[in-house]
Amino acid sequence: MTAVSERQQRAYIAGQAAEARVNVEIETEGMTLNIGPQHPATHGTLRIVAKLDGEQVISAEPVLGYMHRGYEKLVEVRTYPQVTTLINRIDWLGHFANEVPFILAAEALMGIEAPERAQYIRTIFFELARMSNIMLFLGDMGVQLGAITAVFFAFRDREHVLNIMESVTGGRFHPNFDRIGGLKDDLPAGWIDECRAVMEKVRGFCDEIETLLMGNEIFETRTRGIGVIPPEIALSHGLSGANARASGIDYDIRRDVPSAMAWNEVDWKVWTHPDGDSFARYWVRLQETREATHIVDQLLDKLPAGPIMAKVPRIIKVPEGEAWVSTENPLGEMGYYVVSKGDLGPFRVKIRTPSFNNISVVPWVMKGVYVPDIITILASLYFILGDIDR
């Protein structure tokens, strides 16, 4: 056994003390990271305040309200026909789909139903709005993770969908095509064949994006097991749409709630995924885009002849009463609670937008993740700021 001198003992103690001092000096307090309100990952003017311990997120709080436009009050000072022009802009990528639940609520109060042909065309345009909206997500998710090519493909192929919508409605982003009792115009000659050709192109886009992104090892590593939302957490936060179905919740308003639309007239599938992570949310939206093309194809095959407008008064005055109607919009459940006092415009309108509820899970799902995963999770939840703030 080697004897240790007193001098060596003092040197050892001094060395330990010096190391302890260094450790104390490099300890730092938690850092606060502000993401937004101007940041590409927030899809608009949203601010996320993240408190960090090194690279790990301790807490993350969304700060809302930068784009609040007061839609609920604006529609109360418009007549019923004027309201569709406004609500087109709530989820500006969902455009036509925003109009449908409000029109259905007004029709329910008036006790009228659109003709069968109008119901079919409404459903076709609803699914076209879903495609144009989700195609952008499918490309944008790649950009958020560093793969820029996918978004160019998305912008290129979304044009086909917007073009056929424009050829009927005259509007690319704000069609304002729905009317109480039916639709503004019928389909032009040759449109059905053009639409079928576009459905082929959209399916080609889905195949291409699946190979490009989902077959990429980096994409899988960045999304698998990241931002897992169990079904009970999704339900408790009011998540809807693909975000809920990616957590294994088998619910779709198009299938599960009867409405004056034509989804029940065709054969289609509700897609779910058991994992609840960012990959699952992307996968479900990709399958739903493909499914939407099959829904449109079947509706075009079965499109009935007949009028596109029911008999409605020239000046629309909705009888006194209350109605709630929601639909399965591209971002999730969107609904309108309309109160009428028998006037030309609604007395009160409460709007339920999917993005507001979907963003509410952010504080829960961000806890404990690493900084780069913040971007992945925000992208996979897919929200539109106009749809959050209204």
Q: Secondary structure elements and their pairing?
A:
Elements: H1 6-26, E1 31-35, E2 38-39, E3 44-45, E4 47-53, E5 56-63, H2 71-74, H3 80-87, H4 96-110, H5 116-144, H6 149-169, E6 178-179, E7 182-183, H7 191-214, H8 217-223, H9 231-236, H10 242-245, H11 253-256, H12 278-302, E8 321-329, E9 332-340, E10 348-352, H13 354-359, H14 362-366, H15 371-381, H16 385-389
Antiparallel strand pairs: 1-4, 2-3, 4-5, 6-7, 8-9, 9-10
Shape: elongated
Strand proportion, as a percent range, falls in 5-15%
Query: What structural class should be given to the helix and strand makeup?
Result: alpha+beta
User: Any idea what the radius of gyration is?
Assistant: 26 Å
In which order are the strands of the major sheet placed? 1-4-5
SSE pattern, N- to C-terminal:
HEEEEEHHHHHEEHHHHHHEEEHHHH
Largest sheet report: 3 strands, antiparallel
Unreliable spans are none
Helicity range: 40-55%
* Strand element count: 10
Number of helices: 16
Give a quick summary of the entry.
The chain has helices spanning 6-26, 71-74, 80-87, 96-110, 116-144, 149-169, 191-214, 217-223, 231-236, 242-245, 253-256, 278-302, 354-359, 362-366, 371-381, 385-389, and strands spanning 31-35, 38-39, 44-45, 47-53, 56-63, 178-179, 182-183, 321-329, 332-340, 348-352.
